[in-house]
Write a structure and sequence with these properties.
Elements lengths: L1 H10 L5 H13 L13 H4 L11 H15 L5 H7 L5 H27 L4 H15 L6 H13 L3 H6 L5 H16 L2 H6 L4 H18 L8 H24 L3 H29 L16
Length: about 290
């Protein structure tokens, strides 16, 4: 984002230097991705040339999708690393829960868009489960209500969280872009963008362990994560099979892989916004939630 700001500033001609300096400061303050060694057995699969049109097998496609997670999933973001090391304050956990609620609240909307785009009733019945998982029904309270319990455990008021007051503008932009992906790209790409669930279970398990260890006062608000331990793998299995079955060419497989990269970037961007506003340099924008001094 900062790089694009610099480019726009340069294109503006005279008077662009102040904007360029601001953009450079933003770039300097932004948390950097943690570099990791290549994943054994995956590098060869991904190191294709422009002329390689061979269709990936199921195992190769799944490995390529998992490699995206190894490189880009937000389990490596500095904000999450701080959380798992017990270095976040109560206020920082509050802004995480508040902003993440906006993302949680659009998940059933996202899934309803995907569901509406497929004429096959078998697909719709399978995908409808995701809507119920988050919205709930007469037998289950659903993930959105469970997330509100977590927000309340941090000390927030549920009505305030529902209202969206104090959410970072960058959170809204990132989350709304996810809706744009599932609405405007192919159905194959929309389904593929959900495949962060391929690697979310490990992060959820780690997060529950670390939240209980470092923030025991949150223990009563972890029902959301408990439910996702079983829901996410089920959803991922269906989605990866769909992508394999419906990506008929190598080009379509690459579109699916790119859609997953874009989804990972959306998750990462949300944490970038939190880090910039509430960790370093600590510049929350006007109208954003303000952490009370301890």
């Amino acid at each position: 984002m900062a790089v694009r700001s610099v480019e726009r500033a340069k294109a503006a001609g005279g008077g662009s230097r102040p904007a360029e300096r601001v953009a450079q400061r933003v770039e300097d303050q932004s948390p950097k991705r943690v570099s990791e060694p290549a994943v054994e057995g995956v590098t060869e699969t991904l190191a294709t040339t422009e002329n390689d049109t061979r269709l990936l097998s199921f195992d190769e496609l799944r490995a390529a999708l998992r490699a995206v997670g190894e490189e880009r999933y937000h389990h490596k973001h500095p904000f999450h690393l701080m959380m798992h090391e017990g270095r976040l304050s109560r206020g920082q956990l509050q802004v995480w829960a508040l902003n993440r609620y906006y993302y949680q609240s659009i998940i059933p909307i996202k899934d309803s868009i995907i569901l509406s785009r497929r004429p096959d009733p078998v697909f719709r019945r399978a995908w409808r489960k995701r809507v119920v998982d988050h919205d709930g029904d007469t037998t289950s309270e659903g993930g959105i209500k469970r997330w509100l319990k977590l927000a309340e455990a941090t000390g927030l008021n549920a009505n305030q969280v529902r209202s969206g007051r104090g959410i970072l503008p960058a959170t809204r932009f990132a989350v709304n872009e996810y809706l744009n992906i599932v609405r405007n790209r192919s159905l194959l790409e929309a389904v593929a963008s959900s495949l962060t669930e391929l690697f979310s279970r490990d992060l959820i398990s780690l997060r529950m362990e670390k939240l209980r260890q470092h923030y025991p006062w949150l223990a009563g608000g972890l029902d959301y994560f408990e439910a996702r331990l079983t829901q996410a793998p089920e959803d991922a299995k269906f989605a990866v099979n769909y992508v394999h079955d419906h990506a008929k060419t190598r080009a379509e497989q690459e579109l699916a892989i790119q859609a997953l990269r874009d989804k990972c970037d959306i998750l990462w961007a949300q944490l970038d916004a939190l880090y910039f506003a509430y960790v370093q340099p600590g510049w929350p924008p006007p109208g954003a939630f303000r952490i009370e001094a301890s």
